[in-house]
Structures are given as C-alpha cells and as structure tokens.
Amino acid sequence: MKFRLFSFLLLAGSLMCLFSCKDNKDKSSDSEAVSGNATVKLLSEKLKDDPKNASLYFQRGQALKKISEDSLALLDFNKAISIDSSKSEYFSAIGDLMFEHKDVEGSLKWFQKALQLDPKDKTAHLKMAKLFVYVKEYPSAFTEINTVLRQDVYNPEGYFLKGMIYKDLKDTSRAISSFRTAVQVNPKYKDAIVQLGLLYSGKKDPMALKYFDNAWKLDTMDAFPLFAKGVYYQNQQEYELAKEQYKNAVLHDRQYLDAYLNTGYVLMQQDSFEKAWRQYDLLTKIDQSNPEAYYNRGLASEMMGKKTEAIADYKQALIFDNKYANAKAALDRLGAK
Q: Which CATH number does the domain housing residue 13 bear?
C-alpha cells in the first residue's frame, strides 16, 4: 500500500529533535507557552522529584497535546519510550500526533509498533482504522474496527468510524444506523450527533434540528451546530430563520467566516444587495485575504450597477486566488481584462 506523505515544518523540526537531540533535559517547564497550564505545571513538579517516571512524561505529553503544544508533546512521548519501551500507548501517542499532522506514512509505523507490543490495544486499532479511513482503504479500516468491536461491543468510536465510511460511500441508511448506535452507547458523543444532524439535513428532514440542538447543548463553545441549523433553513428557503441562526453563530464566534458568507448569500436571494454588500465588506475586514469575500462583494456591487467597484473586487479576489473561476468569468462578463 502506498501512502501520501505530507510535511509540516513544525513536525519535521520536532522529529529532528526527537531523534537527534542527545540532551533530553526537561524542556517543557521552560516554555512560556505552557507555564500557565496547571496540569503541565503539576506534572513538571512531580518529574523534578521522579525524573525516571515514564508515566509522568506520557501524562504531561497528553496535557501538552491538549493545548496544541505538539512539538513538546512529542518530546515527552519520546522520553517516555526511552525510559519504558514496553507500553503500546506511548507509541500510539506519537503515531496519533503524526497522523494529525497528515504524516500518514510516518504514523503507520508507530501504530504498527504499538500493536506488536499489544495486539489487543483497542486505541491503536482504532487509530489504524482512522488512518485507513483517511486514505479510503475501507476494507482495512473495517478489519481494524471489527477487531475492536469483537473485544468491546460497546465501543462508540468503532460505530462512529463505520458511520463515516458508510457516509463516504453514500450509504445513508447504514451511516445513520452506525451513528445512532454510537449515540446509544454514548449519548454525549457529539461528533456522532452532529453527523446525524448533517445526514438528516441532507434529507431535508426536520429531525436534523433536534440533533443540532443536542450537539449545541453538549458544547456551547462550538458554533457549528448553530451554523448547520442556518444551512438547514437556508436550503428550505426559510431565509429569516437562516439569518437568525447565522447571527447566533457569529454572536458566539466572531470569526465564523462561513456565517458571514451565508448571511450575504441569503440577503442576495432576498434582493437586499446593499445589505449583502455590507456583510461581505465586513468579512473583508475580518479576513483581508479571503477571495470569496471580495468576489461576493463585487457581485453585490454588480447587482447594484456599480461596475467599477465590482471589477476592482473581482480583480482583488484573483490576487488571493489566481484560479478563481467565478471571478474570471465575472471579469469576462463585464468586459474587463
């Protein structure tokens, strides 16, 4: 099997340090970025008294990963392995980080090592399954998932991954069944709840709204369920309800760019071109290099008969994306070079 290998400068730098640095002194405690994290600080203090404790390094690596300090997390996971190379979860942790950075080939080796140490490691099997789902090797993914479910019939992640496979294969009924099983096993499995909402939304079934509401209740820091409700109403041409949900999404996340874009789209459908222009203008100020914002602002200007302003925005969109087909077509339509 041939995997695509993606390189990330941060990860590459981290791995160079992982495998070439001879000085394995405690670096995490020196980082200003993590000095304020209570969990990392506590574990660092414990390590001063017990510097040969592999479990503490592993725990601190997990804590660092949660705050996106991936390079430091990699160092700690590697240190844990250097002290105790018998724990499969330590190898899985590195594989997981590499997979998150899209290094598929690199992560595979770590998962395989974890399974060599413990063939029943459910976490490693599920990580392998995620990897196979990512590269669309679905038979291999099912093998890994079923290995886990034979050990643990109540494992919600196994059913969730099956749902993602069926969803990609356009087998909606099986996807829904798998996601429902995941939620039955774990009623707080937000990702599965969101997927159910999306699938029902695609069917224009109002059941979608219930799932999005449930997902929102589980995590009010994530505005996506609010946005998704807006998309549901937009597709039903219930534009006022859609705008209300997009407004809610922006109130909870000022940087939710798609909510601005979709609000502008709805306003365009309502022939409120000036309001739509203001919406896209706001987006150009929030995200100054967003080609969609300039294109849509240009489109609103064109609809208002402001040809010069429209041309300027279409050209600006092409500066940020020189392959933007709609912007090129618009310039051709207006006779601009």
A: 1.25.40.10
How many domains, the chain? 1
Q: Is 130 exposed, middle or buried (0-12, 13-18, 19+ CB in 10 A)?
A: buried
CB 314 within 8 A of CB 336: yes
pLDDT tens readout for residues 148-190: 999 999 999 999 999 999 999 999 999 999 999 999 999 999 9
Say how far apart CA 27 and CA 218 lie, in whole Å.
36
Helix locations, 30-69, DSSP H: 38-49, 54-66
Q: Exposed, middle or buried by CB within 10 Å (0-12, 13-18, 19+), for 244?
A: middle
User: Which of 257, 189, 197 shows the shortest CA–CA distance to 233?
Assistant: 197
CB 132 within 8 A of CB 141: yes
**pLDDT tens per residue, range 207-260:** 999 999 999 999 999 999 999 999 999 999 999 999 999 999 999 999 999 999
Kindly state whether residue 320 falls inside one of the protein's structural domains.
no
- Contact yes or no for 73/101 (Cβ under 8 A): no
Asked if residue 84 is part of any domain, the answer here is yes
Report the chain's mean pLDDT, rounded to a whole number: 89
The answer, yes or no, to whether residue 14 has pLDDT greater than 50, is no
